[in-house]
């Protein structure tokens, strides 16, 4: 889509002063998908040269905000990466342009990169225009449907996944109202091989990621009660892709399947 309010595109490497009407441009799959009447200038991140994926000391994995879905899919054999990438159900054109950072910053409940990074204890690194740096978990970065903890002019630089989370056993479940529809509920379970801890991450059915942790595999009743307590009625998402009651029902069903699998 033509953005007829945009009067300038500048390189992020030379960009110094943030002003009203600026917008970060990563892959642009969201920016160019609908009118952006408030945007006057695009700050292009495509030439920053950030390594898409970088293994850090100790085995942590840093994913640049500019890493594309296609690169993420090709670069690792971790099963959860492929499962979450495929949850996009998007064309190859989107896969090759859409970025991990863009998916997080859109903060849509069905954003599969949110599901992936929240389930693997991802930590966001945020750069402020004054040089300040903030770090906070993905599960806290996304605060609601379309809402995130991103201050004016702040940039999501990367998401770091800890080695211990990457070593956990995983189980993935996703459901849509239609065969090729947007996720109505997406549940990821992980289990730590060291201490047996079970973690569940609920996304798509909720307005923001919901994380549950159990020191050992809970009973079916304990799991259902924990989900009921952790997700108030207002947090179940409601749109044309699924009513709240259906999303709640499917989340409970998928969570129970994961509990059995990881037990």
Automatic annotation (TrEMBL):
<feature type="domain" description="FAD-binding PCMH-type">
    <location>
        <begin position="1"/>
        <end position="166"/>
    </location>
</feature>
<dbReference type="InterPro" id="IPR036318">
    <property type="entry name" value="FAD-bd_PCMH-like_sf"/>
</dbReference>
<dbReference type="InterPro" id="IPR016169">
    <property type="entry name" value="FAD-bd_PCMH_sub2"/>
</dbReference>
<dbReference type="InterPro" id="IPR002346">
    <property type="entry name" value="Mopterin_DH_FAD-bd"/>
</dbReference>
<dbReference type="Pfam" id="PF00941">
    <property type="entry name" value="FAD_binding_5"/>
</dbReference>
<protein>
    <submittedName>
        <fullName>FAD binding domain-containing protein</fullName>
    </submittedName>
</protein>
<dbReference type="InterPro" id="IPR016166">
    <property type="entry name" value="FAD-bd_PCMH"/>
</dbReference>
<dbReference type="InterPro" id="IPR051312">
    <property type="entry name" value="Diverse_Substr_Oxidored"/>
</dbReference>
